[in-house]
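Lab manual, section 2.4: Encoding a predicted structure.

Procedure: take the sequence of the chain (125 residues), apply the prediction step described in section 2.3, and record the output as structure tokens. A sample record is shown.
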Amino acid sequence: MKLVGFIKELDNYDWASPLCNELGEESNAEELVNNIISYLEKGKLILGWMGYFVDLRTQDPIAPHAFLTDGVWVWPSYYLYYLKMYPQYKLDNSFINYLREKNFVIGEILNEDAILNEFIEKLKN
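Recorded output:
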């Protein structure tokens, strides 16, 4: 299991990164960002509960309190929002290479329970 898109102010874990560290100086290619967002939207819900994430600036609700997967990577539901809001959001190179190898297509997820269990253990630590 690999993690992407976790913001420290929203998910206070050692492995999450503050939003200010995730914002670069140059915008990403619009087509690439659109392909990533389309891919993320097709993720499988592995964990969620009542509640929502809020925009760090406005405090407006932006996404349900949920986490999704493609069977390898796990991301928070708010990741899409921040990719849309900040064209200069830094992209994880290994995640981008992985998506390109898959032609931005999510296949069948066969290990959902294993990913969920591994993610829950990660949240506990």
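Check your result against the sample. The two ends are 15 Å apart (CA to CA).
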